[in-house]
Amino acid sequence: MSSEIATSVASAAAKGGSEPPPAPSPEVQETPGCTSVQEPAGEFALPPGPLTEPLIFLSIQQKEVVERRFPSLASYAAPCWVPHRLIAHDLGFSNEGIQLALRETGGKPYLWCTELENVHDLWRYSEPPLLIDGVAYRDSEAYFQKQKPKPFDAALWDSQRDQVMMRGLRAKLAADPKLASLLRAS
Predict the structure, then answer these.
(1) DSSP state for residue 133 in the 8-state scheme
(2) CB 90 within 8 A of CB 70
(3) Region Disordered: start and end of each range (predicted)?
(4) Which residues, listed in sequence order, are joined to residue 43 by a DSSP beta bridge?
């Protein structure tokens, strides 16, 4: 994780966890394990505060995936934020990757959304096609892969990859405004 990305993640985590969530209003509904709020672009859940551990947002689109693959999440009702460690456990992973990410954020819990991933083998999300500099790409992963130097040069790619990823993410946010709302909710 680059320092720019780690800073972005840490900033989002700090913002989400620095104050308690607002008191429920008519638009806010409580559900087990989370608070959901109706946004103009769709339904998102506000992260609980203060953050005590890394969390992942599960939209209503993930309901069937959760029921099928994640027994540890049975008490959660999407849309909501769930502990990253539970997802890792149900997928058969240790907490090592989570601990590495926490080291990058200086120990501050981070927030993540399945919609912001670049490959969706597990989670349900239809990637928007992207248009960057007049070139059409199937999705953000296709854009990312096409930016690799030819012939491949590992040192050059290492120096460019985070900027390429950020540009692809910005294009993805522009192509699907719901994602920008979700990012702001975090």
Answers:
(1) T
(2) yes
(3) 1-45
(4) 38
Q: Which amino acid is at 58?
A: L
Pairing state of beta strands 111-113 and 55-58? Answer: parallel
- Tell the residue number behind the tokens 């990859």, with chain if given: 161
Q: How far is residue 131's CA from residue 139's CA, in Å, rounded to a whole number?
A: 9
Angle at 57 between CA 56 and CA 59, to 5 degrees: 145
Backbone angles phi, psi at 131, to 5 degrees: -125, 110
Can you give the residue range of the structural domain that contains 17?
A: 3-185
Per-residue pLDDT of 80-114, as tens digits, reads 899 999 999 999 999 999 999 999 999 999 998 88
Residue 157 · residue 146 · CB < 8 Å: no
pLDDT tens per residue, range 27-71:
333 444 554 443 333 466 678 888 999 999 998 889 999 999 999
CB-CB contact of 62 with 51 (8 Å): no
How far, in Å, CA of 52 to CA of 16, rounded?
11
Total domains in the chain come to 1
**How far apart, in whole angstroms, are the C-alpha atoms of residue 141 and residue 147?**
10
Give first-to-last CA distance, the chain, whole Å: 19
Q: Which residues contact 177 (CB under 8 A, 6 or more apart)?
A: 41
Determine phi and psi for 34, rounding to 5 degrees: -165, 170
